[in-house]
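Subject: Malonyl CoA-acyl carrier protein transacylase

B.,
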Amino acid sequence: MSRAFVFPGQGAQTIGMGRALAEAYPAARAVFQEVDEALGQDLSKLIWEGDIETLTLTQNAQPALMATSMAALAALETEGLGIATASFVAGHSLGEYSALCAAGSLGLADTARLLQVRGIAMQEAVPVGVGAMAALLGLDYDTVVEIAHEAAGDEVCQAANDNDPAQVVVSGHKAAVERAVELAKARGAKRALLLPVSAPFHCALMQPAASVMSEALAAVVIEAPLVPVVVNVRAEAVTEPDRIRALLVAQVTGAVRWRESVQWMEGAGVTEFWEIGAGKALSGMIKRIAKGAATRAIGTPEDVTAALVAQQPA
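Prediction pasted inline below.
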């Protein structure tokens, strides 16, 4: 049985995430402490006791979700179910940074600081109200690409997240995205709705943020990963540090090719996907992509225990 560890992206955040892990596992608590120190703020208090509106701010949500994922991984490592048991890692958008941290490519403190910079840069790239994102459900990727092209006109509208066979997200100028919603409905979409996001992620409007991340990534050490990282913009495994750095920059304006990434891992022999961190959104997508694969979410001490029990011989 071949296993992949996958790491969630923005939208999975909840108040209290990771707290039980930190209370049960000293190694998980140490993750939150190191992230707090790296950022010079009490992020863990915000995660566990704050308000969801502040936590959802992009510059907070991104390092918070990564810290929760790394705390869950630290708990797994304590029980002997760590990164050495995975054949591949992958993450959805910001989750790609978590995957790289898990695989030893990026240090934890560097990852936290990079994600805070990324969050601020992505928010500041486009004035509030200028951009939008929308989920188009029930249409395949190629159809959505056609719709986005037609909706764009002289503005930006791109397929931004290819999440699963029937869920694609478009991103761009607000008016163009609104046109895409109407076109999708006319093409038979089951649902087409604007998303409650603060900026149009993963499209050409994010170019200012890509420039910021190019500079930030140039200043950190990226090691070869302990296990191959299946990257968003290529939907294939990458191990060379310079290529990882370039693809993280490209990811800011490029599409998250999640459906293809899961298909690639399935084709490479992965039969089991463990979602490490907050929520179960990726598990739901994976079940719709790789229907024969098993999924497991690891976000609480109980999840870790269940994973441990499942590994015992019958």
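Strands lie at 2-7, 88-91, 131-137, 157-164, 167-173, 191-194, 229-231, 236-238, 270-276, 294-298.

T.
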